[in-house]
Each structure stands twice: as C-alpha cells, then as structure tokens.
Design brief:
single chain; alpha+beta; FomD barrel-like fold; ten-stranded antiparallel sheet; about 20% helix; globular
C-alpha cells in the first residue's frame, strides 16, 4: 500500500445536525435544510435533499452507542451504486438542540442478503500515520468496523434486522 502525500490526507470530517434550525452543516461548511429530524432514545434520523451530482436525497440514522451512521443515498440516474446502505464509523454526540459527528474514515458498504465491504482502510491508516487520529481512536474505529461486519454477517447482511434485534428499529422514507 502506498502512502498518500500529506497534503491529500484530510482531517476527520465534522458535521453538525441542528434540530432547532432544521439544518445540517456538512464537513465543508455547507448548510443544508433538513426536511425531517426524528429523535429516538438510541439515535437520530435525518432526511434532506442534496445538490450533489451523484445523489439527490440523503437519509441517515446516527447511532451513537454503536459508533455508526447508517445512510441511504438516493442516486441520480447514471450514478447508481450497488449498495443498499452505507455506514460511516465515528463519534456521534447527541444534544438537546444539536448533534455532532466526527467521521473516523472507515466505511462499510452493505448489500442486503449478500455482503458487507469495509472500505477506506487506507485513509484511516494514513490519518493515523499523520497524527490526525491517536492510536486509541484508530483502534476503536477498527474494532467498531470489524464488529459491525461480523454482526451483519449473522443477520444475512440485513441492517434493519440487526438493529431491530438490538432494540433500534429503523425506518426509511
């Protein structure tokens, strides 16, 4: 594996989910209106449109106790991907008025009933080597990702079934 140039390694991506203003501030600082927030004792649901070239709508569940963000991207024609759910590994902090997330590089692509693929391992390792994550943070991210893939395998890679069994019944639009 070739290490990337230091200038191409990005800091952990931080997002803000403002429940009062009904906005989502993405890692680049763009503020987007949110159509729906739903707070549960175990997580936060968000649904919003997107002006991204590859997808026009985004739905996400932030699951702090699992260190995961589960998303469905509604792709624009010609940009479809072979995935049902996309998981980000990180830290998700609930708040009365705002939630925040800090992405820890690792992602899991789920194809329900088929498989789960752990991606962006190189980004995590490069960020650790650059000192953007400490050893404990990197280790935790790896443990969360590997544990999640293992758990999903026991549920035939069905995110909804696994989360429901954990007392976190998710629903999407």
């Amino acid at each position: 594996m070739t290490q990337r140039p230091a200038e191409s390694i990005h800091r952990p991506k931080i997002e803000v989910f403002d429940l009062v203003a009904m906005t989502n501030t993405d890692p680049k600082g763009f503020v987007r209106e949110v159509e729906e927030y739903r707070v549960e004792s175990w997580g936060l649901y968000m649904a919003r449109s997107s002006n991204h070239a590859q997808f026009h709508y985004l739905e996400s569940w932030l699951l702090p106790s699992l260190g995961l963000r589960a998303s469905i991207f509604h792709f624009t024609p010609g940009h479809e991907r072979d995935q049902d759910h996309y998981l980000d590994v990180g830290i998700f902090r609930p708040g009365e008025q705002q939630w925040t997330s800090v992405d820890h590089y690792l992602d899991i692509v789920i194809r329900t009933g088929r498989d789960a693929e752990l991606v962006d391992i190189d980004e995590l390792l490069d960020a650790r080597a650059a000192g953007l994550l400490d050893t404990a943070e990197a280790t935790t991210a790896i443990e969360i990702a590997v544990g999640t893939v293992e758990a999903l395998a026991r549920y035939d890679y069905d995110l909804g079934a696994w989360l429901a069994a954990r007392g976190m019944p998710i629903s999407w639009r």
